[in-house]
Amino acid sequence: MGIEDYGGGPGAQQTGVLVVTTNDVPGYRVEQVIGEVFGLTVRSRHLGSQIGAGLKSMIGGELKGLTKTLVQTRNQAMERLIEQAKARGANAVLMMRFDVTDAADVGTEVCAYGTAVVLVPASA
Asked: Per its UniProt entry, which superkingdom is the organism in (predicted)?
């Protein structure tokens, strides 16, 4: 059974890289720590979404356009994280986290980061 078969989400089967927020993966051991990897993206806000969000915030409720944009942005950061991990020879990323900050008042910076490792079955 390879790490792709772990079932740790669709990303592991499609990319060959398991991404988890935990320090370890049951049934596997860390054979090699490669180091920190990250995926970064900055998205600007367009005027239409800012006006719509401003109006919506006055009456309350979910800002669906901004939610959709943030989900897309997080997914792009994850894709870049996985690309970097694969390029460095990892088959997993442990302790994955997101960091979200305003970028010079013109957009939002989203960084996905974690520790790239090579996992092997614990019995190996």
From this structure: Bacteria
- Indicate the pTM of the whole model: 0.76
Cα gap 33→29, rounded to integer Å: 11
Q: Each residue of 56-92: pLDDT tens digit?
A: 556 667 767 777 888 888 999 999 999 999 999 999 9
Positions of E strands within the chain: 18-19, 28-44, 92-103, 107-121
The full set of domain ranges for the chain reads 3-121
Q: Can you name the CATH fold of 3-121? A: Translation Initiation Factor IF3 (3.30.110)
